[in-house]
Amino acid sequence: MTYPSFHPPVRTLMGPGPSDINPRVLAAMSRPIIGHLDPAFVGMMDQMKVLLQYAFQTENELTLPVSAPGSAGMETCFANLVEPGDEVVVCINGVFGMRMKENVIRCGGTPIVVEEEWGQPVDPQKLENTLAAHPDARLVAFVHAETSTGVCSDVKTLSQVAHARNCLVIVDTVTGLGGSEVRVDDWGVDAIYSGTQKCLSCTPGLSPVSFSPRAVERIRNRKHPVQSWFLDLNLIMGYWGSGNAKRAYHHTAPINALYALHECLVLLREEGLEEAWARHRHHHEALKAGLEAMGLSLLVDEPHRLPQLNAVKVPEGVDEAAVRTQLLERYGLEIGAGLGPLAGKIWRIGLMGFGCNQRNVLLCLHALEAVLTEMNAPIERGHAIRAAQRVYGETGHRDEV
Amino acid sequence: MTYPSFHPPVRTLMGPGPSDINPRVLAAMSRPIIGHLDPAFVGMMDQMKVLLQYAFQTENELTLPVSAPGSAGMETCFANLVEPGDEVVVCINGVFGMRMKENVIRCGGTPIVVEEEWGQPVDPQKLENTLAAHPDARLVAFVHAETSTGVCSDVKTLSQVAHARNCLVIVDTVTGLGGSEVRVDDWGVDAIYSGTQKCLSCTPGLSPVSFSPRAVERIRNRKHPVQSWFLDLNLIMGYWGSGNAKRAYHHTAPINALYALHECLVLLREEGLEEAWARHRHHHEALKAGLEAMGLSLLVDEPHRLPQLNAVKVPEGVDEAAVRTQLLERYGLEIGAGLGPLAGKIWRIGLMGFGCNQRNVLLCLHALEAVLTEMNAPIERGHAIRAAQRVYGETGHRDEV
């Protein structure tokens, strides 16, 4: 048996992430490796921190990419902030809230759940009621941008409710960062994690995180050691510390992936954060117009929709998996399935980062209409592309990509 | 302030890892991304498993790359196999044994330490004595290839001692895999972890691991849940499971890094495992001849030396950090410093994977002699390169790289 090199097929990624990667980023990733303690690498890391602070809109000193995927970023927040016996209020309105609860349990904490229907944002009043009933709670955790449903919760209001009850706030913005408004300092978030393979359009495997001075103080004054050596921020701070201090070896950083993330952040800075948010909003409007012209509807109510992740209801009687297979095989187009109670009921169409552009919107509408037509699905035909074109025409927005 | 793209300087990496990456691997890493549940990606993963089984010389079904660096591979082994209250015998003869002990503590286990001088292999008799004194121990952990000293311990004998006392065995071969003999099944190892940035010459950020059926059984029958959600093998097995089963989403795999690892393993298979081990041995002989001709000596006694990591004693009165700075600045050559009690006393010169070749051996001897000469260090001059050439001439080995 021989083992040839692997050559991936050409795809267009419009699922819930990973998203397509800009060729500039692929080029950066394939530059020759240097040591993780090399002065040139350390200089790059210092810049990375400033660029991440920009992306998160924060001045938090402890802002860095965890050397593992988003779920490790989540675990970094919980393992460092939860102590055994702590009461932690977790708001659940999708898969990732459930995972937060699991993290609390594994860290020895006691989760107190605020439950919300999937597809609905977290209700600040419910959080307030729960906190009133649990005065010993020390932490509140919720998802800003739920990747499983495409719903956006109001981080600023939820954080205010939590702070009024003396709780620190942990926020999941894996799908949020770079795609829609994130303002860590203005919103008063204490710990936040993201992923690189969503709206930053980087390779998966890194998790940008940021911690407020209050969170750092709590981590420094823990009664019990952090249960994970690999994710212990007290140790990691020694490596990703301030620019002039000596870098203490903790683990070998994923060097090429960090080249890639640096380039993604340079691209984000070149475009401008608010411009990137506006671009996501714009192409979402075009996609939505096309989908609605086809007679399809979105799961999430208008004011709470994430532009970068569109949960589309599967029409009655349609085999959603067969549609995805057709899209992949005939158009090289990947869209996502529903998870948990939404499995079989929705598709998740991502418009993330580099993949958020006219070309992808038009391909998706064209391919979806063609496949659904062939399956005799109950849709309106012949209007979707025109509806999207009207959005593009009306605004006169020039697609940069 | 502007943020330009990062262009790393050209280096030759002869430290303790990362090592230089083959251009074929850099090219693989920069191929366009596809989804982590794409059928083409799943097919690549199935092949990856077979290739990793070859590299580890094992038929263990549970053989996969953890989506994070070697220290996370270590933590995967301990977090899954140690239960609160377990007695775990840890053999310490360098930095990574110390880190193992720390892992045991953080998992709620009780470490029982077998201590050895740094630079010495673990003594099977000491292990036997310790196990005799602690009949309740359930696990024995030690390092095969100590990256901090370059010493190799006898895994097969140590494993036999452990098994005779009913203990499972956890082995660190971060620096071993691909560079010198590793035979997981023949040696009777129950859990083993490696890194990708050493003798596999891949990008850092992945940790190949393998678990025996006995280890899997113990993991499946744990009394307490694994404290890490991200590293819980009971969950990860659902994604990296058998080829035909449906892949359950756990976390987003680091896709491009996995392209790279696949290509490294294809290269290893093309060369042949035993041929790769022989190549490391061969260039080590040449480097050693040159170093000794310069009057330098190695820390580790002959029979226990790792060819891929050469710990060289710093001559009396030489500022070792200044030497490394000169090598880096004038020759673009990175070698490693000593750690812990060996800081300032040794250099660590790696001959790892793609970086283990004639060109690097000759550059290193030339540059080191030039820098030491300029510093008036007490060395023999003018013989090092000739000594290495004699090794190459005598064997007639043709350098493939």
Automatic annotation (TrEMBL), chains A, B:
<feature type="domain" description="Aminotransferase class V">
    <location>
        <begin position="46"/>
        <end position="338"/>
    </location>
</feature>
<dbReference type="Pfam" id="PF00266">
    <property type="entry name" value="Aminotran_5"/>
</dbReference>
<protein>
    <submittedName>
        <fullName>Alanine--glyoxylate aminotransferase</fullName>
    </submittedName>
</protein>
<dbReference type="InterPro" id="IPR015422">
    <property type="entry name" value="PyrdxlP-dep_Trfase_small"/>
</dbReference>
<feature type="modified residue" description="N6-(pyridoxal phosphate)lysine">
    <location>
        <position position="198"/>
    </location>
</feature>
<keyword id="KW-0663">Pyridoxal phosphate</keyword>
<dbReference type="InterPro" id="IPR015424">
    <property type="entry name" value="PyrdxlP-dep_Trfase"/>
</dbReference>
<feature type="binding site">
    <location>
        <position position="348"/>
    </location>
    <ligand>
        <name>substrate</name>
    </ligand>
</feature>
<dbReference type="GO" id="GO:0019265">
    <property type="term" value="P:glycine biosynthetic process, by transamination of glyoxylate"/>
</dbReference>
<dbReference type="InterPro" id="IPR024169">
    <property type="entry name" value="SP_NH2Trfase/AEP_transaminase"/>
</dbReference>
<comment type="similarity">
    <text>Belongs to the class-V pyridoxal-phosphate-dependent aminotransferase family.</text>
</comment>
<dbReference type="InterPro" id="IPR000192">
    <property type="entry name" value="Aminotrans_V_dom"/>
</dbReference>
<dbReference type="GO" id="GO:0004760">
    <property type="term" value="F:L-serine-pyruvate transaminase activity"/>
</dbReference>
<dbReference type="GO" id="GO:0008453">
    <property type="term" value="F:alanine-glyoxylate transaminase activity"/>
</dbReference>
<keyword id="KW-0808">Transferase</keyword>
<dbReference type="InterPro" id="IPR015421">
    <property type="entry name" value="PyrdxlP-dep_Trfase_major"/>
</dbReference>
<dbReference type="InterPro" id="IPR020578">
    <property type="entry name" value="Aminotrans_V_PyrdxlP_BS"/>
</dbReference>
<keyword id="KW-0032">Aminotransferase</keyword>
